[in-house]
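Assess this:
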Amino acid sequence: GLDEVVTVNVGAAPTPREVLLFFHAIGVQVAELWGMSETCGAGCCNRPGEVKLGSVGPPSPGVEVKLAEDGELLMRSEVVMTGYRNAPDQTAEALDADGWLHTGDMATIDEDGYVTLVDRKKELIISSAGKNMSPANIESELKGASPVIGQAYCIGDARPFNTAIIVLDADFAPAWAAKQGLENVPFDRLGDEAAMRAAVQEGVDAANGRLARAEQIKKFTIVHGDWSPGGDELTPTMKLKRKPIGEKYARDIEAMYAS
């Protein structure tokens, strides 16, 4: 049972802080780790009893990490790949002459050597006022703020303020709706209900309370249906397909900035 668990590590995407706190409160040390295919999966990991929530831990034995001038995480180790097969140009972009792998992840490293990921370098958004922001962190705050929110997609690049596409949680939202007397409303229409929109607004407000002013979500749209792994919006590992989402919901996005 869970009383026998020493530690649990998760990766692939940011875990909402509320989830980590919940498991720690019941004595299960769930913590985040980080690695890449290019590093054979190795990288950084929180150790049992030495967890810093929000970080992916210090580098593993035999791994060196440092930050480039722009804040990109660099890694050097014998476990790092020698290159991409038959792709010398791509290899030259990823590996420098000193053997450092340019990971594509923006990060910070604290005084104890713990690494905290900010976002993928290519996915950072910059507002029209020049503020650099991590959409993944904003989205994580939104999902952690309310159980009715299943997925969130933040928009704000070259925009005057941030907005979000919200997808209801396919398990919790119908159960919550039934308690509000909405048990006969189909799932793909729940977002049209005033009570559900108010519940989402409450979650957005809670998330905004933990975000910097420039990061806060000013408007949101609840879209119909669910996003399935491997579908139009999510990869099989549940990562957002940002460009396809932006294209699919372009009309909804522009409507939020037009009004």
